[in-house]
Amino acid sequence: MIRYLLKYNLLSIIPTQKLFFLASDVPQGTKLSRELLMLNYEKKSPFKNPYICYYQEKSALYVWFCKTKQFKELLVVPENFIIYKALQELPDGMFLFDGQVQLLLVLQQKRLVAQFVVSDASEVVVAQEEYNCKNVTHLSEKQYQDYFNEGLQKVTLNDLRQFANINLSKEKVQNFVMQKLAYPFVVVLAFYMLVTYAQGYFMQQTINTLTQKYQTLKKQNTKTKEAVRHHNQTVRKLNSFVKHELSNINPLQVLYDLNKIILPTNKAKIIYLDIASNLVNLRIQTKNDDGIKYLQRLNKLAYVKEVIITNTFKRRDGVKVFSYAITLKKGAK
C-alpha cells in the first residue's frame, strides 16, 4: 500500500534528521486534532510555526515536529515511525543504527519513549543513565534499511489514517454533502465529466502519436544526447565538489562567537564542540537556563544558515543538556 502511495506522490516520508520527537501520555479514548496538539505542544518545539504530525496508540502519544510548514502530499509519515513499527515486537531496549546519521531509539514496555540523533558515544552513555538501560543493540546501515522495509509492510491503513494531511471542518463537510445532494448540480457535473473525459481521450491519442514520433527522433540522436548528458553530469559533479568541499570556515571565529554568546552568562558551559566542513555540533549544559534562548542567539550569527536542537535531556542532578546542529552558509569564513 505505502509503495503504491509513494509511486503516485500521495505520501511523503520525513527523514529522521529533520524531526524533533516528543513522547507523552493522554487519557485513553481522548480524541485529538492537529490544532489541539499545536495549542498544547507547540511551545515545546525548537522550530517556529512547525508542521506537526502525531500518532496515538491507546494512552501513548507520539508527536513529531518538522520545520517545513506544509506538505502537498495527502499523507505525511515520520521515517522513525516506520522503524518503530519494525522494532515494536522486539524486547525492550536501546537500538543504535550506525551510518551517516546515527539514530538511537529507546523502547520501554513496547512503547517508543525517546529518539535521538547522536554524534558520539558519550551521548549514548548519557541516554543509558537517563533511561536506566544497560544494553545497547548496535545495528548497521544495511540493517536499518532492512528494518525500514519491514516497517513499511507493518504500517496499516489505520496507522496512515492518523497521518492524513487534511483538515476538514464540520462546516466544510456539511457544504460538501449539500452540494452532492443538489440534483441539478449533479447533472451538470456528470455532463462536464463526460465532456472532459472525451476531450482527454482524444488528447491522449494525439499524445501517443507525438510520443511515438519523439521516440523515433530520440533513438536517432542517442549518441549526441549521451555525450551532452555525460558532459553535463561531469560539470555538475565538479560544481558540487567546489560548492560543498572547497567552502572554508574559520574555527577561531566560531569559537569567538560561541564564547560571546554562552560563556559570559555564567549560566551555561560548552561540554562538546565539533567543527567539520559546514557543520558544527555543539553541546552545552545548564542548570537554570533555557536552550531555546541559545538557539535564537545562534541563529542571529551572520554566517549561520540553520540551527536545530537535535537532543535535549535532564540529568538526575538537575543539569539540563542541549545538543545543537549548526549549519553554516556556503563559503562562510
Quick take:
This protein is α+β, with helices and mostly antiparallel strands and 333 residues long.
Comma- or semicolon-separated keywords:
about 25% strand; 4-stranded antiparallel β-sheet; 2 domains; Gyrase A, domain 2; alpha+beta; 11 helices; 4-stranded mixed β-sheet; about 325 residues
What are the SSEs and their pairings?
Blueprint: H1 2-7, E1 11-14, E2 19-25, H2 34-41, E3 51-57, E4 60-66, E5 75-78, H3 79-87, E6 93-97, E7 102-108, E8 111-118, H4 121-131, E9 136-139, H5 141-154, H6 157-162, H7 170-181, H8 183-220, H9 222-245, H10 251-261, E10 268-276, E11 279-286, H11 291-299, E12 304-314, E13 320-328
Parallel strand pairs: 1-5, 6-9
Antiparallel strand pairs: 2-4, 3-4, 6-7, 7-8, 10-11, 11-13, 12-13
Helix pairs in contact: 3-5
β-sheet strand percentage? 25-35%
What class, by secondary structure content?
A: alpha+beta
* SSE pattern, N- to C-terminal: HEEHEEEHEEEHEHHHHHHEEHEE
Total discrete domains: 2
Q: How many strand units?
A: 13
